[in-house]
Amino acid sequence: MQDPMSGPPMLSHYEVQTLTRAYRQGRGQVQVTPDLGRTQVTVALDEAGVRFPGGARLAWDQAQEILAHPNAVFAWAGGSTWERVRAFSDLTGRVVSLYPTGRAPTMLLSGIPMHRVRNTDPWRDTQAKVRALHPRGRVLDTCFGLGYSALQAARTADWVLSVELDPAVLALARRNPWSAPAFAHPRVRVVQADVARLVAGLPADFFSAVLHDPPQFALAGELYGAAFYAQLYRVLKPGGRLFHYVGSQETKMGRNLTRSVMERLRAAGFAKVKPVPQAFGVLARKPR
Question: How far apart are CA 191 and CA 153, in angstroms?
Fold first, then answer.
């Protein structure tokens, strides 16, 4: 068990399967996670549905509704109402939503998961990226997303500046039990801004590490460009390290993207540029 649950209960088909199975077995109570795997509570089961500590209730017909939407997370909204955890982005004109994995959820942006979920989960996916970087000192996290990178980098870093462009993404993260601790973390500062503009105003030679985990190229091509890479180089200290997530390098498209990213990083001045297939990214260093 980790931090005590805060906020309304959240459920996906994973948890509802546990609840319905226990009821069919004739059990009057069962332990279930009310916050997507962070904690466990004991809930009561009866013919009307499920009773959570604190007063939330889930009727069996609502449970069936959740089971019918395996790509969604639902949160109790009071009374007998459960609503999907999602937000509409005025910035992009797209819907962002939480996607359950049985552990830490990922975010769907126009139906595209923002983390790897095949043979892993978003939390372990992020751990692989952060381990590859070994962040120390001051760290720039260019794309906050759900905040997993910022939280894990803060375990070893002195301070993390994490930047997110979209207010809807930040609103979704604040509702996600796995993301919410980032907003109160003493070594994490979350800023809503366009990182391509923000980085140009940051001091030179300031960060010891940069974790660059941008959306797909089709959604944020400027974050793969030579001008942006030059700014990342400028704000890194001599000897500082950059981890750039690029995705799978097993496909032709992935290999081409990796190769072009590495070429532009070298052109920006980075040295020791190398692929890190196990973390689906590229490592680079600013020469001393």
Answer: 16
